[in-house]
C-alpha cells in the first residue's frame, strides 16, 4: 500500500525543513489534535498514539541532508515507512511530499487506508505552518 500527500509549498528553505524534521521532538507539533501520547525515546526513535489506536514507535532509517528523511516502524507487526521528500525551489521556499509505504494484507489495508490517509494529510498540512 502506498499513500502520498500532494506537494505542499513551505516558506522555509529545504535546510530549515530538513533540520526541523530531523529533530524528532518536532513531530509532536505535526500530530493531529487527537494525539493521546507522544514521547521521544532517543535521538532516533519516538512513539505516539492517537486516541483509540495502538502506540506506534517510529525510528529514523535514512536521511539525506536537505532532501529526504525516512522513518520506519520499529515493530515487525505493521512494517511501514514514512518518507519526507524535500525539494528546494529557491533559498527561502521548498516543496515537501510525504509518503507512506507498507505491506499489508487486503483486509488490513482496507481498515487502515482512510485513517492513514487522514493522518498523512494532517502531518502535511501542519508542516506548512512550521
Describe what you observe in this structure.
The chain is of the alpha+beta class. The protein has a single domain, classed as 2-Layer Sandwich (Alpha-D-Glucose-1,6-Bisphosphate, Chain A, domain 4). Helices cover 28% and strands 43% of the residues. The chain contains three helices and eight strands. It has helices spanning 14-22, 27-30, 106-128, and strands at 2-4, 8-10, 35-42, 45-50, 56-64, 68-73, 80-90, 93-102. Strands 1, 2, 3, 4, 5, 6, 7 and 8 form an eight-stranded antiparallel beta sheet that branches. β5 (56-64) and β6 (68-73) form a beta hairpin. The N and C termini lie far apart (28 Å). 15% of the residues are buried. The mean pLDDT is 94.
Mean pLDDT: 94
The SSE order reads EEHHEEEEEEH
What's the name of the CATH homologous superfamily? START domain
Return the CATH topology.
Alpha-D-Glucose-1,6-Bisphosphate, Chain A, domain 4
Structural class: alpha+beta
Could you tell me how far the N terminus lies from the C terminus, measured between alpha carbons in angstroms?
28 Å
Strand content: 35-45%
What's the overall geometry? globular
CATH class: Alpha Beta
Q: Count every beta strand, where a strand is a DSSP E run of 2 or more residues.
A: 8
Based on the coordinates given, report the CATH architecture.
2-Layer Sandwich
In the predicted model, the low-confidence regions spanning at least 5 consecutive residues are none
Biggest sheet architecture? 8 strands, antiparallel
Count of alpha and pi helical runs: 3
Global Rg: 14 Å
Give the total of domains: 1
Helix content: 25-40%
Amino acid at each position: 500500500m502506498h499513500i502520498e500527500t500532494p506537494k505542499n509549498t513551505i516558506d522555509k528553505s529545504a535546510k530549515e525543513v530538513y533540520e526541523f524534521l530531523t529533530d524528532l521532538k518536532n513531530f509532536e507539533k505535526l500530530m493531529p489534535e487527537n494525539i493521546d501520547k507522544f514521547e521521544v525515546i532517543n535521538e532516533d526513535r519516538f512513539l505516539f498514539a492517537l486516541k483509540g489506536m495502538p502506540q506506534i514507535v517510529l525510528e529514523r532509517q535514512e536521511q539525506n541532508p536537505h532532501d529526504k528523511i525516512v522513518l520506519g516502524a520499529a515493530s515487525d507487526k505493521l512494517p511501514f515507512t514514512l518518507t519526507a521528500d524535500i525539494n528546494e525551489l529557491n533559498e527561502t521556499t521548498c516543496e515537501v511530499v510525504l509518503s507512506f509505504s507498507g505491506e499489508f494484507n487486503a483486509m488490513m489495508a482496507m481498515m487502515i487506508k482512510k485513517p492513514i490517509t487522514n493522518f498523512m494529510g494532517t502531518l502535511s498540512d501542519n508542516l506548512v505552518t512550521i
